Amino acid sequence: MNNMEGMEYFFELYEALPRGGPGNNESTRRAFQAIPKFTYPPLILDIGCGQGVQTIELAKLSNGKIIAVDNHQAFLEKLKQSALAQGVAENITPMNVSMLDMEFDEQTFDIIWSEGALYFMGFQNGLRRCRQLLKNPGYLAVTELVYLSPTPPSPLAQYLESEYPDIKDVQANIELIQAEGFQLLSHFTLPKSAWLESYYQPMEEPLARLNEKYRDTQLALNQFAAVRQEIDFYKQYSDDFGYEFFVMQKSD
Q1: pLDDT exceeding 90 applies to what percent of the chain?
Q2: What is the mean pLDDT of residues 111-127?
Q3: According to the CATH classification, is domain 19-192+239-250 in 3.50.50.60?
Q4: Taking Cα atoms as reference points, which of 56, 46, 57 lies closest to residue 80?
Q5: Percentage of the chain modeled with pLDDT above 70
Q6: Segments of 174-240 assigned E as strands
């Protein structure tokens, strides 16, 4: 949710965080439990894996092989270190590639996972691309930014639609999922703790530190102000929008 100019400051902030977006291991586990058990270790694609908190949790849950895709090398390095420390490095293959440039064969993966990242493709395009890459049967689990109230307050709607014009409510996303050839297995809203405790609270210290470090650099300050605005919007309107976890199966 940022302009490309000044992205280096944005990345410096995000490299200091445990994870690159809202989420927590409890939600990852809950979503994974909605997928039928595999009799063999599944091959999993994690799209936009970021620092890889959910990648490591998936490796533990599935005992499968995971290809973890992100186009920011510093995140992949963090993932490698964590995977080694947690004893799952053998399960995870980090790959530096944009999700828009993935060159896997069709029907390669048993499961595709994407927490807070598929919106880069647009949700509908993301669903189509994942369906191509999934085996039959194959499973897709994604978190997507949604409206949670039927009538979101207009300041929130203006803000979100400038940041993510694609945003819909839960029901409209369910209809899209079904129209794109998936059967919905489960869906639930990420708890507020997945935003506040896992994501925004760990941001406070590096945000303050970097504001001080770059106090004479307006471009950096603009980036940090945009992040601060995002936090304020969430705190004010957390009943009206959030992330929905959708777990689905590719249907014939």
Answers
A1: 96
A2: 95
A3: no
A4: 56
A5: 98
A6: 182-189
- Burial of 164 per CB tally in 10 Å (0-12, 13-18, 19+): middle
Contact by Cβ (8 Å): 210, 188: no
Q: What is the pLDDT of residues 237-248, one digit of tens each?
A: 999 999 999 999
> Which amino acid, residue 190?
L
Q: Is the peptide bond before 22 cis (omega within 30 degrees of 0)?
A: no
Q: What is the distance between the alpha carbons of residues 159 and 185, in angstroms, rounded to a whole number?
A: 31
Q: How many residues does the chain have?
A: 252
Residue in this structure with the two tokens 């270790």, named with its chain if needed: 41
- The secondary structure of residue 71, as a DSSP letter, is S
Closest of 61, 68, 67 to residue 29, by C-alpha: 61
Tell me: pLDDT of 225 over 50.
yes
**Is 171 exposed, middle or buried, given 0-12, 13-18 or 19+ CB atoms closer than 10 A?**
exposed
List the chain domain ranges: 19-192+239-250
What is the model's pLDDT at position 252?
79
What is the distance between the alpha carbons of residues 198 and 217, in angstroms, rounded to a whole number?
Answer: 28
* Residues in Cβ contact with 52 at an 8 Å cutoff, skipping those fewer than 6 apart: 46, 68, 75, 76, 78, 79, 82, 83, 92, 94
- CA nearest to 106, candidates 134, 127, 128, 126: 134
168: β partners: 146
Two structure tokens written together for 82:
């964590």
For residues 102 and 10, the answer to whether their CB atoms sit within 8 Å is no
Token pair for 35: 């997928």
**Other beta carbons less than 10 A from residue 104's beta carbon:** 15
What pTM, to 2 d.p., does this model score?
A: 0.96
Angle at which helices 25-33 and 53-62 cross, to 10°: 40
